[in-house]
Protein 1
Amino acid sequence: MDEKTSVRPFGMKDKLGYMFGDFGNDFTFILSSSFMMKFYTDVMGINGGIVGALMMAARFIDAVTDVTMGQIVDRSKPGKDGKFRPWIKRMCGPVAISSFLIYQAGFAHMAMGFRLVWMIITYVLWGSIFYTSINIPYGSMASAISADPNDRAELSTWRTIGATLASTVIGVGTPLVAYIKVNGATVLSGSRTTAIAGIFSLLSIICYLLCFHLVRERVDVPQNTAKLEIGALLKSIATNRALLGIIAAAILLLLGMLGMQGISAYVFPVYYNSASAQSMSALVGSICVLAICAPFATRLAARFGKKELSMVSCLFGAAVYAVGLFLKPSNPMVYVAIYTLAYVGLGMFNTVIWAMITDVIDDAEVKNGIREDGTIYAVYSFARKVGQALSSGMVGGLLTMIGYSEKVAGNPSAYPDILDGIYNLSCIIPAVGLAAVSVALYFLYPLNKKRVEQNVAILESRRQ
């Protein structure tokens, strides 16, 4: 790979542009992970276990579409706009439209068979086809924006800032607008959710286009013209310990983080009967990520190592939730404090994880002599989707197991045992998930600070 000299130097435009890319991604991703389950259980009247099962089943499709898209990206020929950027402009419309179609409350009175088919088709189109076709090129693009590992770490930080801003808009604004009071209970309005989904889809398109226009690719990533051998590809993936380690950590992180976000749609409005507390948790959590994680994670990672920082921060988040399970506060603001402290712990790992992917890509190039940004990122992206699906399936299945249904949302005080179950799940899911992340990083992920620095030096000498 050679660094292009005719393109403006790496700078703030690239950071802002990359931030807007994840902002666009998360307008649909966070909406799905935080509110799709709630929408289909409470508005569309579909069992939570069925919704979770769909999210898990769709990942079998992703096993094909993610890796296929990674191969398409790796084998595409760079054009005047680069190798990765064109996909952002091509696919921003389809991913936004398909997300909007998921949340059609006007179909709530249709036959159950129709509602199920509509949910399946729209979710698969959004998650397995169109989101894949834009997210994999976007994630792979980081290694083409700059070859400097410090620049890539900054891109990872700005990507996290974009995700945090999207989380703030969705997490703070949506509960305040989407929930209404019915007979004293806090319930989700279907029509308002549909309108919110439409607005977020439009905003996602704007963010994607800003990403396309602000970011520049500076590193030539040549077209991969080698003959595709599935067996060799699978062997390469199966023997890549760094990739397998980050995959395990990512799946466990998403089980904890998305389980935490998913169950918050029940613990705040149902257990605490407070949509405003849900908004407050999202707002304070986002502020802490922007004020603490974004400015300090990169510095701490540079000093101690990304792996080392991530292990400690996730253990901290797990410990906070263990305390929350023991305290079981009656005041929702105390629970907001618990949620926020734990969010800072997982936020540190989330801030540097995208830079860790570029470390994995570099490690594979050191070993194999071949740059496979798209394929490696596609495998990682698939793993994240598995984590997303497992968290949704887990939350849906556990809610069904404790007896939750739309009847509980309408009259929560009549079901005290179910309310206790909701609270316990809200602490146990993230505590176990975050503790498991630390274990996976310690035993499976080999790229400590020393190893990363050695790989950077090896690749620099080769390119010279």
Note: The CA atoms of residues 243 and 360 lie 6 Å apart.
Protein 2
Amino acid sequence: MDTRIGVDLGGTNIAAAAVDSGGLIVSRVSVPTNAGAGAGAVMEGLLKVCGMIVSDTGCVPESVGIGVPGTVNTAAGEVIFTPNLPVSGVNITDAIRKKLGCPVYLGNDANCAALGEATAGSARGVHCAVMITLGTGLGGGVVVGGKLHTGLSGAAGELGHMVISAGGRRCGCGRLGCWETYASATGLVVTALEAMKSHDSGIMSQMCAGDTSRLDGRLIFKASRVGDKAACIAVAQYISHLAEGIANIINILEPDVICVGGGISQEWNSIEKPLLAAVNLDKYTSHSENVPSTRIVRAELGNDAGIIGAAMLGIL
């Protein structure tokens, strides 16, 4: 069986799957990351999930691909920096390569998600696709001609770190006004807290039992749907910020499709129409007639996108 192992190295769990050449998952496992126990424990978990997949399928994989939430040196198999895992500066591929006797590849997790959607999801069959993931942060990836565009050092695709508000909110990267600080789930919460200072938020406050530390994207959208003033304003501002960044991407790259994934994409029914309307106003070709238009769609693969894309690192 021609299979490859895809691994999603997360802060809480390490998920892995055997994936066939068409992007179909045929077996999957997951173990706790145990990040608090240090790099050695994380490596044990990586080796364990790979061994479990081999035992389950009875096959030595063609390759192993690992998606990491941070910057990586793909050539050296080394994690350059990841904020939530104790493996910065660690080569996490050699031990797996020695154990399984196959090539091992490393990639950024958002890039892997983009590759997964291009292989088997909402961007399959197109020449140029962009993936954005709306979670705690805002990740991105660009696929052209079936291959990831990773740039000179492998760090390309950090779409969340383009500035959309000069001098705006401070980002974890050190810059001010990054798209991530407005269009991530974290950014939505900040926007909601700001709105609560000057607008009625009784419904939203009741939903979080008066504890604003419990606010999250799902609660804010839920409150907006039942008319909470602060939540409605926060959601409208959030969609405007999201549209601004997407319009920038279209104006720079004009891809065939932009896939929107991550936790906030679960609110697609609430987001889609106002988002598309706002993007259409801002994109450079808004006044052009009879020209192809970038499709903006919800990603299809959910949490599987990163695993499938990681498995494809060795062949695409």
Note: The longest helix spans residues 229-253.
